[in-house]
Amino acid sequence: MTPAQRHRIFALTPFDRLSAQWQALGIQVRHRCVRGPETGMTMVRGRMGGSGNAFNLGEMTLTRASVALEDGTLGHGWIAGRDKAHAEMIAVIDACARHDSWGRRIDAELAEPLADVLQREREERSKAAAATRVDFFTMVRGE
Care to name a GO molecular-function term for this sequence (predicted)? Predict the structure, then answer.
């Protein structure tokens, strides 16, 4: 699993669920914050039709954090919103995942199960939305 895939899963997972699963994994590390956690704004860009010219869609709140483990390994985390603890936890997990032995455990025992839960929840939301789908049609009057 790539670091970007891991970040996506952890950022989309609610903090309470991520925290509980991380503690259940049992990896205990000491860290210090190198930057943040800090909250700011970022510009969200879009494209007309997905492939047209880029335009500024608007701004969103973003929280980021960078941490260093005792051995100097750096980790970074960022989330949409203002949850500083969530961003810091993602940074700690990112730093731990850079160690080979922990990285395999984090992918197999943390990231993959959380990805499966996110996928199931997405499918459930899609089914609920599909149940409310309305098909519109136009009738043409003959004269």
Answer: lyase activity
